[in-house]
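Reminder to self: tokens first, then the designed residues, so the page reads top to bottom the way the pipeline ran.
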């Protein structure tokens, strides 16, 4: 069982958005935020080839205009309005799969494992369909 990274007493319920440590309460977050440092993740390429001598992340490699898979907030909001997704999220197995991906240290491996589950694939496909159909509806209003 994992324990809070700040107090080491309770099971953590939250993750710091800056450094990704797990903590259990507002009190622990307040203690932590004064010493919080962003996580620097190593690149999966040779940094010297790109003129980068230190470890860097995707934000260091791409300018905002270069990101092609960025989904506008308006389309993401369609996900929250979908009864179809809400019904799928009633399934405890799907919720557990989503929690395991969210809490994984290696998210790429967790996604590969989750994509072996038909329920997760169905959920992913419906999310994509809503976002893609939303793009069509937003660009071609009737």
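Designed residues (142 positions):
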């Amino acid at each position: 069982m994992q324990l809070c990274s700040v107090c080491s007493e309770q099971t953590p319920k939250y993750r710091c958005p800056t450094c990704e440590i797990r903590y259990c309460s507002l009190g622990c977050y307040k203690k932590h935020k004064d010493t919080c440092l962003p996580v620097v993740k190593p690149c999966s390429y040779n940094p010297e080839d790109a003129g980068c001598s230190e470890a860097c992340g995707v934000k260091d490699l791409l300018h905002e205009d270069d990101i092609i898979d960025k989904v506008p907030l308006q389309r993401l909001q369609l996900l929250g309005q979908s009864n179809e997704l809400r019904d799928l999220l009633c399934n405890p197995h799907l919720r557990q799969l989503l929690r395991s991906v969210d809490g994984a240290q290696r998210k790429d491996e967790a996604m590969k494992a989750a994509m072996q589950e038909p329920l997760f694939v169905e959920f992913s496909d419906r999310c994509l369909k809503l976002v893609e159909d939303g793009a069509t509806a937003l660009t071609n209003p009737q």
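Confidence is low (pLDDT under 50) at residues 42-62, 137-142.
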